[in-house]
Amino acid sequence: MIQPSCYLTAVRIGFPMRTISVIIPTFNAAQYIGLAIESVLAQSVKIHEICVVDDGSTDHTQQVLEKFGRIRSFRQDNQGPAAARNRALDEVTGDLIIFLDADDTLDRNAAAALTAGYERAIQLEKNVGVVYGDYWLADAAQRYRRRICVGRVSRDQLIVDPCVIPSGMLVSRDCVAAVGKFDPTLNFGEDWDYCLRIACAGFEFVKIPEITCVHQEHGESLSKHEERAIADLLKLLKRWAGDVRMSDKERARIRREVARTLLRRVRQQIYSRQWDSVHASLAAALSEDPSLLRDPFLISYCAVYVGPFSRETISFADVKRAVDLTAETIGTVCQRLGISAQWLSAGRKLAVSIELLLRHRYIAAAIDALVIGLFHPWAVLSAARTARYEWARTRFFRSH
Question: Suppose 43 and one of 78, 111, 302, 344 were both cysteines; which one would form an S-S bond, judging by CB atoms 3.0 to 4.6 Å apart?
């Protein structure tokens, strides 16, 4: 067992001595898994057990795990992160469960803060399912690091926004017993699906002010996994759209999110030069949400990546070509449907201006924005809202 250093604090303030299990699924993360385990061993409160499930790694993960004598490790054929977490859920015995991804690390006081937050909520007679906090975001080389502030999580938000990441998330044993396990058919978004199921089961999400973990983004994640991620996300959203627990209003919001996700597929197909598929994906998005044809950001959705890493692999000339191709494709659709496409010029300029801004070419971006503002002020007013939305979605894609 891991010895406590401030465990008596919880006892003195009247919190019961609940046991804590930490679950770490891993796949080919030998260079990170040791740091993840060490961050759990260094916790300021007693950890009942650390359960690591190796999901069929082909690197030297097993050799790294053998160095740690105080963990429970299991190996299985590669089945995805959901199946790995499910295996761990079958094995752990703690009252409270903290999830941690193999390439992330827990803050030293994460377990103490999460369990204290859980106990406070229980004393307030809340039906606690999940406790979570903010986290540090870093790339693999630690080139940038900033605090990600997670807001209050509710069913209403989770309908279209994943909100939280698995790392540093505490789930109660009662919640797991009621909701069940992760969906093993999803390799992407399985944590979002799980959180939404928790919310729909009537459990509450409790926010604590402390930072719980350092979460890493990897430069190759977006391009390498985007196509598969989009497919899984569409599967998840369409399933929830057909769920009987969803109201008509919630179902309409999900359909809009389906349309936005299909536009990401358009973008992915444009940059991977899958020209034959672009028209079909765009048509599918517009059938889910016809109002997109009046959205000045439609071209931006299809041509501009908001995340910082895309600037390293996609040139400005590539983006301009994508903008032109998207505008031409949308113009063809509008002509076929007999819809005015007068906004296409503003939409094209807006997409280029956003890309210039993201590349820190502020003067050129400001000039374009000024022109757009003079002739299309309504487009500029909604730019900040759309940018925030796209940044949140990009961060979610890069987190998996």
Answer: 111
Is the residue at 2 inside a domain? Answer: no
Domain range for 391 is 222-398
What backbone phi and psi angles, to 5 degrees, belong to 276? -65, -20
Cβ 70 vs Cβ 57: under 8 Å? no
Query: Nearest 5°: CA angle at 214, between 210 and 220?
Result: 145
Strand partners for 204 = 128
CA 290 to chain centre: 26
3-state helix, strand, coil in the chain (%, to 5): 55, 15, 30
Residue linked to tokens 């295996």: 87
In a domain, 1, yes or no: no
Helix or strand holding residue 146 (H, E): strand 145-148
User: Would you tell me the crossing angle of helices 221-241 and 248-271 to the nearest 10 degrees?
Assistant: 150
pLDDT at 379 over 90: no
Last residue in a domain, options 217, 243, 259: 217
Residues 178 and 226 in one domain: no
Instruction: Mark which of 217, 240, 264 sits at the end of a domain.
Output: 217
DSSP 272: T
pTM of structure = 0.83
User: What is the domain count for the chain?
Assistant: 2
Residue 144: Cβ within 10 Å count? 10
Give the model confidence (pLDDT) of 270-285 as tens digits.
998 888 899 899 989 9
Over the stretch 219-259, which tens digit does the pLDDT of each residue have? 544 445 788 889 999 999 999 999 999 999 999 999 999 99
